[in-house]
Amino acid sequence: MRRFLLLLAGSVALLGCQGTPGALAQSGATGVDAQGRSATRSVTVPDWAKDAVFYQIFPERFANGDKRNDPPKVQAWGGKPENDNYFGGDLQGILDKMPYLKDLGVNTLYFNPIFAATSNHKYNTRDYSIIDPQFGDKALFKKVVAAAHANGMRVILDGVFNHTGDDNVAFKDAEANGPKSKFWNWYN
Questions:
Q1: pLDDT of residue 158
Q2: If I label 158, which of 39, 49, 148, 165 is the partner at 20 to 30 A Cα–Cα?
Q3: CA–CA dist 18, 166 (Å, integer)
Q4: Among 95, 170, 161, 180, residue whose Cα is nearest residue 123
Q5: Which of 28-32, 130-134, 164-168 is modeled with the greatest confidence?
């Protein structure tokens, strides 16, 4: 289970799927356990992240900069988002909106998955070595990263390496070969 440590106005609280089990009165705590008490394990935050202004981008829904890579039956921009529909957001759209992001004061871009997958959210990755063609390609991604860096922004990818789609080569091998597959223990 993942938990988040929240630092607000000098106090520390733990936020997890169970809510906030308790606020810590002490300032400067380095960690908390499941009950919100000080823990011995420390959390190291990179210095740059302490003052970072993050902007999370769900690429498919951010901006459509290149209609040539739109998936079939793309919806009109501004339509109702559904689990299985597409609006055509892509890396070119992100590149085009870089001045907007800079004007907001953003200095860290956090991308939801961008690797090849069959869904709009891309958490069911087919291939981690390929930028999803609906978003662009590696050359375009390099331009996005270069533009972000030129505008003083860091880039973080949500690699979701603990997720694959059922069309991923490792999943297919585990499905076909059962316990004999070298990927068998990747899945439960």
A1: 92
A2: 39
A3: 30
A4: 161
A5: 130-134
- DSSP 8-class letter at 142: H
DSSP string, 79-93: S---TT------HHH
Cα angle value 127/131/137 (rounded, 5°): 145
Q: Name every residue whose Cβ is closer than 8 Å to that of residue 102 and which is 6 or more positions away in sequence.
A: 151, 152, 153
Handedness of CA 136, 138, 140, 142 (dihedral sign): positive
Contact (CB, 8 A) for 121 and 60: yes
pLDDT digits (tens, 9 = 90+) for 56-66: 999 999 999 99
Residues 73-92, mean pLDDT to the nearest whole number = 94
Q: What's the 3-state SS for 163-181?
A: CCCCCCHHHHHHHHHHHHC
Structure confidence at residue 118 as a pLDDT band (50, 70, 90): very high
Q: Is 131 exposed, middle or buried (0-12, 13-18, 19+ CB in 10 A)?
A: buried
Dihedral sign computed on CA atoms, order 168, 173, 175, 179: negative
Question: Taking 80 as the threshold, does the pLDDT of residue 9 lie above it?
Answer: no
Mapping DSSP onto H, E and C, the string for 98-109 reads HHHHHHHCCCEE
